[in-house]
Amino acid sequence: MRVTFVVTTPSFSGPMELLLQLIGSHEVDILDVPLATIVDSFVSVVRDASTITPIDDLSEFLLIAAILLEMKSQRLLPGKDSLEPDEEFVGWEERDVLLARLLELRTYSALADAFVSLFERASRSFPRLRGIDDGFAVQPPDLLAGVSTAQLAGAYLRGIEEKPVPVVRLNHLTVDAVSVAETVVSLSQRLPTMGRLSFRTLTEGLGSRIEVIVHFLALLELCKLGHVELGQGATFGEVQIEWLNSNAGLELGRIDTYEG
């Protein structure tokens, strides 16, 4: 609980904080306040108290007394007749710094108490001083038990020998090679007699995908040479094929060759 110190002087009687405010507002003259009497009365109160005065109250009284002493010395010493209000209360900043330090010290004190409690709890525990009995000792297995030097040498040679390069053999696969040039010649012989037809109809008898691709490339070659006309009525629709010139000779030398 905070203790409020009451001072009694010929010009003022009340709390010490109020006295400082009245002096700051020039309602009480600092020269009329005997500081020695205030200090003596405070010391007697602290000495006669049945309990220890909190450190916060002591530090606050010392701070206010220092401010009053500074204000009175400024009035007694030669100098300016008047002071700015901010200069009169410059001690309040120091008071805030002092309070902040007190809070910091209180935090360190609480932390020290916590460490003491941990040390007391640790003192009630005892570490194990003896290890596992010999009968329960687990021995690691000998990894080289039963291994001869010849076996080690053979393992070393197997580890450093050059590994064979893996080879993928394709002799079991058979790929039919289809020539675009041969397909162009075959279509130039068949299309004049088939009339207008779709690409689906032309390739419906083929058995592999590569043959369908080669037939499409052959049709592109014939279209480039001007022998067939390709058309598609709609997007993703059927591709229509129509032979244009049945009398013109096929120029095989101008055909691009593709190996399927």
Uncertain residue segments: none
Q: Secondary-structure element sequence?
A: EEHHHHHHHEHHEE
Helix % is 40-55%
* Terminal Cα span: 102 Å
Strand order of the largest sheet: 3-5-4
Structural class: mainly alpha
The gyration radius over C-alpha positions equals 56 Å
Number of helical stretches of at least 4 residues = 9
Give the domain tally.
2
Quick one: biggest sheet?
Answer: 3 strands, antiparallel
What is the residue-averaged pLDDT?
77
- What's the total number of strands? 5
3D structure, described in words:
It contains nine helices and five strands; from the N terminus they run ββαααααααβααββ. The chain has 260 residues and is mainly alpha-helical. It folds into two domains: 6-118, no CATH class; 180-254, Arc Repressor Mutant, subunit A (Orthogonal Bundle). The strands form two sheets. Strands 3-5-4 form a three-stranded antiparallel sheet. β4 (228-232) and β5 (239-243) form a beta hairpin. α3 packs antiparallel against α5. The two termini are 102 Å apart.
Summarize the structure.
This protein is mostly helical. Helix content is 50%, strand content 7%.
Short key terms for the protein model shown above:
9 helices; single chain; mainly alpha; elongated; 260 residues; 7% strand; 2 domains
